[in-house]
Each structure stands twice: as C-alpha cells, then as structure tokens.
C-alpha cells in the first residue's frame, strides 16, 4: 500500500527554520550555563534520562504507528537496516577519531614531560570530539526533517525532544572544552558553531524529503525510527548510566515518556 502525504503537511522553510533554531539556541544556552555554573553529574544524568524517555515516546506514539499501519514490510526492512548500519558506521568512525585524538594528546603530554614547552594558553581544539558531535547534530537535523515528513505534530514533538537532548549535549561539550583549557567565551563560541550543523541537517532533510510520498517515505521514516532508537539506547541511556542509578533518575525516563504520551494525545 502506498503512503500518500498531503502537500500541506510539508513544512515551509520558515517553519522548519523556526523549529530548528529552538534546539540550536537551547544547546548554546546549555553551554553558557555550563561555563557559568556547571550542573552536577546527577542533574545531567536526570536530563539524559528525561530526554531518552521523551524521544522514545515520540518514536513509540507518533512514528511507529504511522509506519506500521501502511504494511510495507520490505521498505521498512530496508530503511530500518540502513538506519542501523549508518549509526553503527558513524559510531565506528567517530570512535576512531576520538581514539586518534587521545593518542595525540598522550604524545603531546609525553613530549612536554621530556622538556618541550607549549605556548601559554595554546589549548588545542579536540577535533575528534568536535567532529563526532557535529555528525551527531547533523543526524539530529536530518531526523527533524524526517519527523516533519511524517506530519506537523510528529515534527513538533520531535523538535521539543531534540531540544532537551541538545541541552544536555551543550552542557557536556562546554564542560569538556573548559577542562581542556579553553576560555568561557571560546567554549560557548565553539558550541555555537557546532550547533549550526543542526540547521544544515534540517535543511538537507527538508530539501530531500520535500514532496516524498509512497514507498520512499516509508523507507525514510524507518531509517529515522532506527536512528532514534539507536540514539536512545546506545547514546543517551549509556551516558546517563555513567552515574550511579537511583529510583529518581530512573523515574525521569518514565516522566519524559508519559509527558509526551499525554501531549501527543491532546495536541
């Protein structure tokens, strides 16, 4: 069965830009908050749990029913498989970058201990980390475009969910940059630069998906489904569990899920 989406569902560029700016601005605000007063590990873990619950709710309540009701198993299998393969490939690529970065830092530290001196204040950029974050944000932008391809409500809820995720990402990135010796303003500026990848991803997603219908849209939605599930299980919850688990932290996941379940019902 072909899936036909009315053209009115496709958001205008101005609408997509507005919903893309929200997570980007919140990510920058999170970085500013981190350099001003970094949140404790438990609070960050709670934010990650909450974000995971929110995104899982959007997947289960909004995207999954749209995919299932059109009974296109071959397209779903193809899209889902491509999504999993893409996310695993990106993880492998970014882990190699981060490992190379750590090796380089270890070599620099060894050289300094041997008598070499680095210029004062010459904190080098952690390119491995920044490239990994940039790719992550680019994928988030693409997922936002996929969400709007499913419908205005799905896109709006996903934009809010990604806003919460990027708040946590902005906090973590700024803290990492500060620990590497970068100044407060520079740390926030770097985060602001990487947040632009969300607009790039959303723009690509909107352009590619404009007018997409039928089996192609089923493939795209299934790709987004796999990518979002990967984001929840392999990134958000993995990072959240770095802090000792408590009933309150676990509760944050279910609060996020329930909140967007109810919001999806009344919106």
UniProtKB/TrEMBL annotation:
<keyword id="KW-0812">Transmembrane</keyword>
<feature type="transmembrane region" description="Helical">
    <location>
        <begin position="187"/>
        <end position="209"/>
    </location>
</feature>
<protein>
    <submittedName>
        <fullName>ZIP family metal transporter</fullName>
    </submittedName>
</protein>
<feature type="transmembrane region" description="Helical">
    <location>
        <begin position="127"/>
        <end position="150"/>
    </location>
</feature>
<keyword id="KW-0472">Membrane</keyword>
<feature type="transmembrane region" description="Helical">
    <location>
        <begin position="76"/>
        <end position="93"/>
    </location>
</feature>
<keyword id="KW-1133">Transmembrane helix</keyword>
<dbReference type="Pfam" id="PF02535">
    <property type="entry name" value="Zip"/>
</dbReference>
<feature type="transmembrane region" description="Helical">
    <location>
        <begin position="46"/>
        <end position="64"/>
    </location>
</feature>
<feature type="transmembrane region" description="Helical">
    <location>
        <begin position="156"/>
        <end position="175"/>
    </location>
</feature>
<dbReference type="InterPro" id="IPR003689">
    <property type="entry name" value="ZIP"/>
</dbReference>
<feature type="transmembrane region" description="Helical">
    <location>
        <begin position="12"/>
        <end position="34"/>
    </location>
</feature>
<feature type="transmembrane region" description="Helical">
    <location>
        <begin position="215"/>
        <end position="236"/>
    </location>
</feature>
<feature type="transmembrane region" description="Helical">
    <location>
        <begin position="248"/>
        <end position="266"/>
    </location>
</feature>
